Amino acid sequence: MERIYRTYADTEVTQLSTSVKCPYCGEEWMEPDTDECGTTYKLRCENEDCEREFEMHFDAS
C-alpha cells in the first residue's frame, strides 16, 4: 500500500464557526457556517434543559 505525507503547510481553513451564547440560559458553543455579514440566523440552544430558539445577527465590526 502506498503512503503519502502531509504537513501543516498542506492545511487550510475550510469552515468557519462562530462563538454563540444562548441569551436565555448562557450555554456557549461553536456554530458552523454562521459568518455571512448582515445575516440573521435562527438558532436553537444546544442545552437539553433549554433548547429555546433565538436569533443571532452576524456583522463584522
List the helices and strands and how they pair.
Elements: E1 17-21, E2 28-32, E3 39-44, E4 53-58
Antiparallel strand pairs: 1-2, 3-4
Architecture overview:
With 61 residues, the chain is an all-beta fold. It has strands at 17-21, 28-32, 39-44, 53-58. The chain has a two-stranded antiparallel ribbon. A two-stranded antiparallel ribbon has the order 3-4. A hairpin with a 6-residue loop joins β1 and β2 (28-32).
Give short descriptive properties of this protein.
61 residues; mainly beta; two-stranded antiparallel sheet; elongated
Short recap of the structure:
The chain has 61 residues and is mostly beta strands. It has strands at residues 17-21, 28-32, 39-44, 53-58.
Largest sheet: 2 strands, antiparallel
Helix content: under 10%
N-C termini distance: 50 Å
The residue ranges in which pLDDT falls below 50 over 5 or more consecutive positions are none
Instruction: Characterize the overall form.
Output: elongated
How big a fraction of the residues is strand?
A: 35-45%
Largest beta sheet: what is the strand line-up? 1-2
Number of contiguous helices: 0
The total beta strand count reads 4
Radius of gyration: 17 Å
Average of the residue pLDDT scores = 92
Structural category is mainly beta
